[in-house]
Write a structure and sequence with these properties.
The protein has 186 residues and is an all-alpha fold. It is built from nine helices and two strands, in the order H-E-E-H-H-H-H-H-H-H-H. It has a single domain, classed as Hypothetical protein af1432 (Orthogonal Bundle). The radius of gyration is 17 Å and the shape is globular.
């Protein structure tokens, strides 16, 4: 006889050992340690950076930028967790995400993010200031981490930061993510 949990549907086992149902996510199953671990092991740009640069590091940098710009801890938390769904669904390259055939992925991603917002008491819609900080980091990452062919990145609308990114190793990125979460959620 199958347990009710097994009947519930497809799941992934998280780093903490939980069964997480990415197509039926529940806020109670979301752990900051799982998010930090998964995102620290996922490389931005589908792994096509010059060296490993994790989604966790990107998220910490977005959060730090929002702090430098004087935004509230709530906005800084949104910056830290803006890609949290990728801990459970992984990130898809933008050309795939934009294709109509991937509408199902968008729906799943939106629901995981909704549950992240519930879990961490955040407004459900990503604030524009977070989108702006994310775009500034994108321009900086492209400059510092990609081969950079200008014609590939013509749609970039923001100037990069002055600071050059020197990527962290995954373990350090995980630690920084958790430390940043503690700083802004106290």
């Amino acid at each position: 006889m199958m347990s009710a949990e097994v009947k519930h549907g497809p799941f992934i086992e998280t780093r903490s050992g939980l069964r997480f149902h990415p197509l039926e996510p529940k806020a109670a199953d979301i752990r900051i340690s799982d998010i930090a671990h998964a995102l620290s092991n996922q490389c931005r740009f589908s792994g096509h950076t010059r060296e490993h640069y994790s989604v966790a590091e990107h998220s910490v940098r977005v959060s730090n930028l929002l702090e430098e710009q004087g935004y509230s801890k709530e906005m800084q938390l949104w910056g830290l967790l803006h890609d949290a769904s990728e801990a459970y669904l992984v990130d898809l390259p933008s050309p795939l995400k934009q294709h109509p055939a991937f509408a199902f992925y968008y729906e799943a991603e939106a629901e995981v993010m909704r549950q992240v917002c519930i879990r961490f008491w955040m407004p459900e819609e990503m604030p524009d200031v977070v989108k702006e900080a994310d775009a500034i980091l994108l321009a900086t990452e492209v400059r510092d981490l990609m081969p950079f062919h200008a014609e590939h990145w013509a749609k970039l609308t923001h100037n990069p930061l002055d600071e050059k990114i020197l990527p962290w190793d995954p373990e350090f990125a995980r630690e920084q993510f958790i430390e940043r979460f503690r700083e802004i959620s106290e």
